Amino acid sequence: MAKSTFQTRLLALQRNMLNFAYTLTSNREDAYDLLQDTTLKALDNEDKYVENTNFKGWVFTIMRNLFINNYRAAVRASVVVDRTDDLFHLNLSQESGLQSPEGSVTAQEINRAMDQIGEEFRQCFVMYIQGYKYQEIAEIYSLPLGTVKSRIFVARRRLQGLLADLRYD
After folding, report:
1. CB–CB of 46/5 below 8 Å?
2. pTM of the full predicted structure?
């Protein structure tokens, strides 16, 4: 295939490639990066393209394979090796997800909010947070299962409302 024909066909596919990249990455910037990497790889491997084969399929296969390889590399890079004796840190989250210390809510503020949600809601909610199942909580307090679920839901909503004012985003 002539170089100009190959490049013309590749340029004609750019919009479709971008859409496919966006479906793979779900992120605009990552999609543009994947599109650029795919275009470069296709141009580098132009000599490997066999005439009279599905050009679009060939290019999309390159894109899919690049995405998979990049994903695998990202997963490998994020693996945390715990070298402590008791393996305590293995189950801890390595990142809080907070941009700054000011974005966190202190335990004292959470306890104050918990005191405001009402005793019957707090009891069920605390047990749920401690790992008890709905059915276990219902049996302990001799309540219907629906009441336990409702109280936990209401407690969660009230806490969200009370703690929303404390965010420093």
Report:
1. no
2. 0.47
